[in-house]
Structure prediction request, 251 residues.
Amino acid sequence: MLIRVLTALILGATIAASPVVAQQPLKVATEGAFEPFNYTDPSGQVVGFDVDITNAVCADAGIKCEWIRQDWDGLIPGMLAGKFDAISASMSITDERKKRVAFTNKLYQTAIRFVGAKGKLTDATPDGLAGKRVGAQRATIAATYLAEKYAKSDVKLYDTQDALRLDLTAGRIDVLLADEVATQRSFIAKPEGSAFAFLGPEIKIGDGIGIALRKDETDILDRLNKAIAKVRSDGTFQKISEKYFPGFDIM
Prediction:
């Protein structure tokens, strides 16, 4: 009898610790500075594709999401420190990141591409950009790619996409490397980016974009994976994607 009581108490404590079962909000962090995937509206709320698609996934899984803003390079450290429970910030699933955190199955996938002034550069290979000033946001797959492939370039890293683009428009770097869809929608298509264009082919790295969790959150991971499969197959994903990325296929 005592063993059964102790077992029930242990199981009860385990259930209470789970935000999913206890219906406590799942605290989800995002950068809030990567339009149109995640950004901050005039009221101070985080909005964008990452927010909408993650809310849809959470709703299907029976989870309430509570959104928190966090600078990009503090996302993984903050989650591991217990400041929040999950990350949905256009974070690519890579082997290096999987050493520290768990990822859901792929939500979507985009490519990274070089961007430079129209007509100035035509070769985006390592030799073509040798000696050139090349920028990327730190702690991104673009930064890792430059470190691995572009040793002949003068690589400069930035805390935010805004700072990266500002240095490109000011002529302090020759090219940048960043997410293709975000760069097209929030830079090239706008007046400040009209003098710039993509350079070279698309570069796809990793296994797509996922929601990151601590490795011990196996129950939440399983629920989110089932919901992702549903949202990607029942038309919900396509509807939200078309709202933000008409003409782009990011499945």
